[in-house]
Write a sequence for this structure.
């Protein structure tokens, strides 16, 4: 035990002598005193830690500064994108408005006797039994109940059923309570057109009371017959199917509405139109001698069905639909 203790003391003494000699040599080389070297040796780990901490803090500060700068740039870019999108939306809206007005000018050129009031749709009300919408103009703009609403293409949208000073409610052709006298323009057959909600065809129109012998073709155009409410010749829809009523004594036709009701933004209310009769030729209407006759048109004029004995339609086209 004494020899072991003596060995440890000797090792410590040797290390101390070597350390002292090393510090003396280093002090002579660097012109630094031994106490300073000892202090520097002790402080070195703390200095390294402080340096590492400072470097980390500088990096974090730099990151935060760059993050704030990027965040500010991102906000600026988002504002610019929002402004550009707003400009694009306005441009699209103006383009659609110009397109509608251009079509309305064409319609006005065809129907010079029509007076219009334009209005935008501001609300919808649609259930299993009704289909209506509210527009932003009313009696102050000359709009009253029982005035016809159309698109810029002259397609029937519906009828004004309620009017206030600055609003009006339009019942659309899809509503099952609205009935309009219609005519198949290619053949002259008359019937009553109403919404198909009751019959389970909510997106189609149904034309009832057609003669059982009526020849109905797909894509036949159906227009208004003319009345005190609806001018004659406005487009209501196109035939997509037909069949017999349950009684078997009459036919019906299903129509695809000409107006895309659910995508409408703007409508035009016919506030006034003349009822002066004029002469025009009705397709498919012939007299007993086979000559085409002219009919006078007006609000109360109806097109009569062509005599069946005079039909000369090829066999390939006479198969009734449904």
């Amino acid at each position: 035990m004494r020899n072991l203790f003596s060995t440890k003391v000797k090792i410590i003494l040797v290390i101390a002598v070597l350390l002292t000699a090393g510090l003396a040599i280093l002090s002579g080389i660097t012109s630094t005193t031994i106490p300073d070297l000892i202090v520097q040796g002790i402080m070195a780990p703390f200095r390294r830690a402080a340096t590492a901490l400072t470097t980390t803090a500088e990096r974090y500060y730099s990151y935060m500064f760059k993050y704030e700068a990027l965040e500010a740039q991102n906000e600026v870019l988002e504002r610019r994108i929002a402004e550009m999108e707003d400009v694009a939306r306005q441009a699209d809206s103006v383009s659609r408005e110009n397109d509608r007005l251009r079509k309305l000018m064409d319609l006005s050129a065809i129907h010079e006797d029509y007076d219009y009031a334009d209005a935008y749709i501001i609300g919808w009300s649609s259930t299993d039994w009704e289909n209506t919408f509210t527009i932003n103009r009313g009696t102050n703009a000359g709009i009253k109940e029982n005035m016809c609403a159309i698109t810029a293409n002259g397609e029937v949208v519906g009828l004004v059923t309620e009017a206030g000073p600055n609003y009006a409610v339009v019942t659309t052709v899809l509503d099952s309570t609205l009935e309009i006298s219609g005519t198949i323009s290619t053949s002259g057959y008359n019937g009553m057109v109403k919404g198909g909600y009751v019959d389970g065809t909510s997106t189609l129109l149904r034309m009832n009371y057609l003669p059982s012998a009526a020849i109905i073709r797909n894509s036949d155009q159906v227009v208004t017959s003319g009345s005190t409410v609806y001018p004659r010749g406005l487009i209501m829809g196109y035939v997509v199917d037909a069949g017999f009523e349950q009684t078997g004594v009459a036919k019906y036709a299903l129509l695809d509405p000409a107006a895309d009701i659910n995508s409408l933004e703007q409508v035009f209310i016919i506030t006034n139109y003349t009822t002066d009769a004029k002469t025009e030729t009705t397709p498919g209407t012939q007299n007993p001698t086979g000559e085409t006759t002219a009919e006078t048109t007006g609000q109360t004029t109806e097109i009569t069905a062509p005599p069946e004995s005079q039909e000369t339609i090829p066999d390939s086209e006479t198969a009734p639909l449904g």
Observations:
- The domain at 115-317 is CATH 2.40.10.340 (Thrombin, subunit H).
- The two ends are 121 Å apart (CA to CA).
